[in-house]
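Let's practice the habit of predicting before peeking. Look at the sequence and jot down your guess about where helices and strands might fall. Then scroll down.
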Amino acid sequence: MTKQTMNFQAEVAQLLHLVTHSLYSNKEIFLRELISNASDACDKLRFEAINDGGLYENDPELKVKVTFDQDAKTLTITDNGIGLSMQEAIDNLGTIAKSGTKDFVSKLSGDQKADSNLIGQFGVGFYSGFIVADKITVESRRAGLKADEAVRWVSDGGASGGGAFEVEAISREARGTSVILHLREDATDYAQAWKVKGIINKYSDHISLPILMEKEEWKDGELINPSDEAGGRQPGGMVKTGEWETVNKANAIWARAKKDVTQEQYDDFYKQISHDFEAPLAHTHNRVEGSTEYTQLLYIPGKAPMDLYNRDHKAGLKLYVKRVFIMDDAEALLPSYLRSVKGVVNSADLPLNVSRELLQESRDVKAIRDGNTKRVLSMLETLAKNDKAPVADATTEGVTDVLSAEDKAEQEANLGKYTKFYAEFGAVLKEGLGEDFGNKDRLAKLLRFASTTSDTATVALADYKARMKEGQEAIYYITADTLAAAKNSPQLEVFKKKGIEVLLMTDRVDEWALNYLHDFDGTPMQSVAKGAVDLGKLQDESEKKAAEEAAETFKPVLAKLKEALKDKADDVRVTSRLVDSPACLVVQDHGMSTQLARMLKQAGQSAPEVKPVLEVNADHPLVKKLDGSVHFHDLAHILFDQALLAEGGLPADPAEYVKRVNALLV
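Done guessing? Here is the structure:
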C-alpha cells in the first residue's frame, strides 16, 4: 500500500490547535497519558487473550518501554499490547468518538493547569503528545496480524497548516505500538533519563506492568593527551549499557499493604485515575475476605466533574478480576447516588469473561456493591463527625474530653471537608433516599440544609431536632426554586412570628427525595406548604378560637371566592399561617406541589394538573376589601395570581393579570 494523506476530523484539528497553543502549564502530563494508553493496550490484549491465547504470539511478558535519543531529539513509548490495524489507526488517531472534543472545549476554564487535566478525562490523551512534539510517528501491528500488515501513522499536528496525517503499510515483527515523539526545541530535556524517570515515578508508579528504561552509567571522557594522565580529559557523560531496568514499582497500589503506601502515593494514584488536579477528600483501602473476596481502593473527590448530571456521564469503578483489567466504569459496583466516587476493585471470585449484563445479575457483585456502599458511607460519616472544631462547653468548668493524639490529628485533618463535599455532591447524595432504602437512615443523618437560622446548607436533621421548641411535634421544611424565594415565602410568616425554625430546601431533587423521608428518628417531616397549618401545642387556645371565629364570619366571602376561582383553586379557606401577606397557595397533604409540577413541565415530562388551595388572611386589608367590592371578580383573580408569584410561579395569563391590575390602578 502506498502512503496516503488523510484529513483530521474537524474537532481533532480544533483540539490540536488548543494543545499546541494553550496547554503549556503542565507539559509533563503527556507522558502520563501515553504510558496510560500503553498500559491499557496491554490490558486489552490480556483480556482478549482469555479466549485466544495465540494473541500472545511468542512474547507473553507484557511491558512498556521508554527510550530516548538525544541526538535525534526523540522520545519513544513502546508497548507489546494489542496494537492497531491500519483501519484502527485511521479511526482512533484521526477522529474522536462521541465528539469528545466539543465537550473538552466547552469545559475550558482559563486555568491552564485545570484545563490540561481535562485531556485524559475526555479520552483524547494521545494528542497531549503534541504539547512537547512538533511531529509524532506511530508504528503499530495488531496482535494476530502478519508482520507485513503493520501501519505507520505520521502527523505534525497541523503545525504546517495542513491539518492532516499520513498512513502507510509497513513491516513490523513485534506486535504492539511505538509512539515516537519528535521533540520541540524547547522540550529536549524530555530526552534525558533523570527527567523521564521523575515523571514516571510521579504519575505512573502504580502501573502494574513493568515500565522499562535502558540503564545508564557514568563514563569519563577520553584523555586529551593519551600519553599524559595529568593533561586532563574530555568532558564525561552518561552512556547506555544495553541493559534494561524497571523504573516503576510495577505493583498495583491496591495490591500493596497499606503500611507500604504513602499518602502522597495514594493521592497521585487518585489524580491518575480521575484526571483531577486536586487531592481527594478521603480514601479507604481494604482487603475484604469471607464469602466474597476482593480488594477495594475508593476515593471521595473534592470537586464534582462538570458532567455529573449529564445522562451520558460515565461513572463507576475500575474493575479487575485476579489483577486482569476488565472495565473502566463498572457502574454495578456502587449505587448511582455515589457515582462521584472513584477507585478500583480487584475481585478474586468473578469470572474473567464477566460482562456488564452478568455484573447486574451476579450475587458476588451485589456483595461487593453493598460492601463498597458501606465503606463510602462510613468515610462520609467520619468527615461529617470531624467537620467542625468542637466547641467547649462553658458549663463543664474547663473539663473537656481527652482525645488521643491520633484522634486529634484526624479531627484537624478533616476540618471543613464534609462542608466542601456537601457543597459539591449534596444534591446527588439525596437521590439515595429513593434508591437505597436499606441505608436511608444513615443517609438522612448525612443530609444538610439551610434554614431560617442559617443561609448555608450546614443544618443537620439531628441538630434541628435537638433545638426544637418544647411542644413542637414535627420537623418543618419548605421547598422553593431559590433560597430567596424560600426565605421570603408567605407560608413562613407564622413560623417566623413564633420563632420556629424551618428548613429551606432549594435543590431540584428535594421535592422528590422528601417523598421517601417521612420522618427522622421518629419525628415526622412536615412541609409548611402542604395541608392546613397545625402547630399543635405551639398554638394557644385563644389563637385557635380566633381562627375559628374568623373562618365562620368569612364564610359568605369564601363561597364567592370559590365560585370565582373554581377553575384555578381546589379550595379557598381562611388560614392562621399568614401574618403580613393577604394570601398564599398550598396543596393538599399528599398532593404534588406546584413547584414539582413546574419542574416536570420544564423538563418536558408530563405532570398532572395541580389545583392548589388558596389560603387567605382574614385580617389583611386587601382581603377585607373583597366583601361588597364591585371589583370582586378581578380582586379574587389578582389575589390568586399574586400568591402564585410569591412562590415563584407565573400567572397562567400574565397579560390578563397586568390588565386587571392596571384597571384597578386608574
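How did you do? Residues 97-102, 112-123 have pLDDT under 50 and may be disordered.
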